[in-house]
Fold these 2 entries.
Entry 1:
Amino acid sequence: MSREYQTPPVELTPLEKTESLYDEIVEWYADAGEKEQRAAAKLLMVALDKFAIYEGHNWHSLVMEYVDILKHDPEKFQKILLSNRGELKEKPVSGPLQ
């Protein structure tokens, strides 16, 4: 009796889930102009709201820290993004394997 090897499913990281949502929002805009910017703006609005709620009066400094990194050291920003993707990690989904 031979069993076929199945690769365990990999759970998306929170960043990958966010990027997937971004792609879904872009697709929702269909042929609208500047659909990528519109989708990014929607995600940014939600993120800023959450920062304001959960970071209290310090929300601005945390947001500006990321903005400064992106503005002054885009390579470092890309490394931060890369480290938050699952491509470098093998994190199986919790639960039984199929």
Note: Residues 15 and 84 are 6 Å apart (CA to CA).
Entry 2:
Amino acid sequence: MLKTSISLPKDTVKTWVTNHWAIMRMYARFLRVVERKRKFRREVTRQYNWGNGRCVIVKVRFTPKEYDSLHMVAAGARVSVSYLIYYLIQFWERMSKKSAKFVVGGNYAPKVLEWSKKRVNFEEKLTFRRAGPRFFPPRRP
């Protein structure tokens, strides 16, 4: 597990802390929705969660696969990982009211093409697939 921190609005911190494992079970499905609806953006600044004392720093743990997948999509969409997690929480709240009939799995695969003093060239792929719940046993904290 990788330890890091994110910034969340105060009103969502309790939801995140109490339901972290259930929320992260939907992260691949959420990233698929983000990649379908948001454009790959360049030449713009990043979007972050609001400051002004409305946000709280929360310590989190991600698996390397979750961490890399979130960062890849956040970099492509030019948003922060905290921003993605905030909208993932909202997505989870909406989806938990519906009965999700399938689970989406994501396969993150990085490939370094060249890493030298003169050039950095690498490729990241995130492939989504439908999978039944039997492939994703409940996570334990």
Note: The chain has four helices and four strands.
